[in-house]
Amino acid sequence: MSRTTRAAGALVTTALVLGLAAAGAHRWDGESWAEVSVMCCFSVLLLLAAVGIQRMRRKR
To answer: Which UniProt keywords apply (predicted)?
Structure first.
């Protein structure tokens, strides 16, 4: 496996774990599944954006 493939796999795994944890926390609060899914997608997008920004800074 290439380094990029391993990094992408780790990122996807981290995003999934965080998404599931966020879903459990929001659902435990009594929010609807629609709200939970929107919040989890938003959380994962923020994580991916943060990782992308860090990579851009490293390349400079």
So the answer is: Membrane, Transmembrane, Transmembrane helix
Question: Are 36 and 23 spatial neighbours (Cβ–Cβ below 8 Å)?
Answer: yes
Q: What burial class does residue 18 get, using C-beta atoms within 10 Å of its C-beta: 0-12 exposed, 13-18 middle, 19+ buried?
A: middle
Tokens of 15: 């995003």
Helices (H) and strands (E) in the chain, counts: 2, 0
Can you read off the two tokens belonging to residue 40?
A: 């989890």
- Helix-helix angle 3-28:33-59, to 10 degrees: 150
Element (H, E) at 48: helix 33-59
Domain map of the chain by residue range? 3-59
- Mean pLDDT over 49-59 rounds to 80
